[in-house]
Amino acid sequence: MIYDIKWSIAITTFLYFYNTALKSYRFRKNIDLSLTLKITALSIPGAFLGAYLLLNIQAQVIHLLLALLALLYLVTDYFKLNRPVAVTDKALCGCGFVYGFISGVAGSGSIVKAIVFKHIKLPKEAFVATMAASALPLNVIKIGIFSAGALVGLSDIPLILLLLVSSFLGIQLGKKVLAKISQHFFEKLVRLMLLALSVKLMYSALA
């Protein structure tokens, strides 16, 4: 069965919501509250705009551009071509808007935040916790918009419940693994995550 890309984005938003809610609770002591507020400030209006646009535009182009952006960052990071840049509060708010917009129109803007958080070298626990906490409000907004736009319905409830159980089990395992790995190894995992997300986005855009 071939699923509509808009339905896929909407249904995976429930998975993101479960993940971010559970991670925010499990890692609540590691959340960088100041960074979360700066990222979230403009991400909420960005998410509203992106989610409403998703109802009326093709998301494939956004997916492809986002994947290319992440791949470019990975190449420059691997070859040490990235110049040290001070990340100001204004820059964080701007990144938050871009993150929110992409999150609304493409389903997830995690690539944007992952690049920023990696650049400022957040410790692994704070990285995971702040990624989740800053995403939680947006996922609530997107679920409301997608449900109102009839992208998901009652027939999707069994799948949504399955995603909830999967999220819970995954986070329980993930917290144990995170405690056992080094910061250096974690940064390598972030690079792999960015690469995997890029490939996934390119596939969804070109399929």
What can you see in these coordinates?
This protein is mainly α and 207 residues long. It has one domain (5-206). Helix content is 79%, strand content 0%. It has 8 helices and no strands. The two termini are 14 Å apart.
Instruction: State the total count of DSSP E strands.
Output: 0
Count of individual helical segments: 8
Helix content: over 70%
Shape: globular
Mean pLDDT: 82
Poorly predicted runs of 5 or more residues: none
Radius of gyration: 17 Å
Distance between the termini: 14 Å
Structural class: mainly alpha
How would you spell out the order of helices and strands? HHHHHHHH
Q: Which oligomeric form is depicted?
A: single chain
Considering the chains and any ligands shown, give keywords for the structure.
single chain, 207 residues, mainly alpha, 8 helices
SSE topology:
Layout: H1 5-26, H2 33-54, H3 60-78, H4 89-106, H5 110-119, H6 124-148, H7 157-180, H8 183-206
Helix pairs in contact: 1-6, 1-7, 2-4, 2-6, 3-8, 4-5, 5-8
Task: Provide a quick synopsis of the model.
Helices cover 79% and strands 0% of the residues. The protein is mostly helical.
